[in-house]
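Write out this protein's structure.
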Amino acid sequence: MSFKSQRIALVNRIGTGNRQSFALLAVAALMWWAAYSSLQRVADALAYDLLGLGAETHLGSAVNFFFYDVPKILLLLSGMIFLITVLRTFVTPEQTRRWLGGQREGVGNVLASLLGIITPFCSCSAVPLFIGFVESGIPLGVTFSFLVTAPMVNEVALVLLFGMFGWKIAGLYMVSGMVLAILSGLIIGRLHMEQHVEPFVYQVKVKANAQAQLETRLTWTERFGEALQSTRDIVGKVWPYVVGGIAVGAAIHGYVPDDFMVDVMGKDAWWSVPAAVILGVPMYSNAAGVIPIVSVLLDKGATLGTVLAFMMAVVALSLPEMIILRRVLRPRLIATYIAVLTVGIIATGYLFNLVI
């Protein structure tokens, strides 16, 4: 068989494979929609009919909340992460480094913050990413704008916020997170703290093995396969946080009086924003676990600025992430990073409480 014939046969096989993949995707989308549409009926049947709980009781309200929200969040995560991962197959880590490399201060910070939203990196990826960025010559302040945005304004946070509060709250959180990341990066960049990066970081040479991946064009079947694997990995990691967060949220929903939460996290409690940040720092959680709690806090009368500050502190100032970053940053730079971000989060909380 000639080379031309082999190429035509290969193209035909790819075309057939892509059509079958799109057909399977359509069936899966219909099943997803059918399951999502029946959530409330299933939750009512389980809580009130099967378990015999009263709808007006504290326990019945909490259990119904739990049965409804757990599958709802898991379905939203699965569907949206699959779609986002398909889009991400068009962006590689090597491309991210190239886009950020050589950018000037200001423009680089904005671009880094935008890339932090769309790229698949979390706090667990902080060390290898940081080394790769430094090795590529990306300014320290630009790198920090990326490091702040990537865990704080990630796909899990945005999907959950959109699913539970709508696009206005999700958009508000995204914009405030980006502004915070850009300002934090600019401040750290102006402080010129490069000498407080561990020396070995400047000696590491990252292998440019992503070049081949950059040049490779994936088929739709391969993109869907990669998205399915990524969805399994992410949902497999975050589901305990989802269940735990919703369990806490269900308890608050069913048993904590509205007046109590208004007194503690309402506008009259001026100290609630810094207290929420201090409370959020040592928590070992992520957006999947904290957003269900945030949802209930808002329902109970807590102010938006306070709960946003709490969520930002949990996601961006978590103790595990600081321990991971200690491998590449010296204590003074980590302390500066924490101080700048803490002041920014508190200011964001007060600003939202003032204007909303």
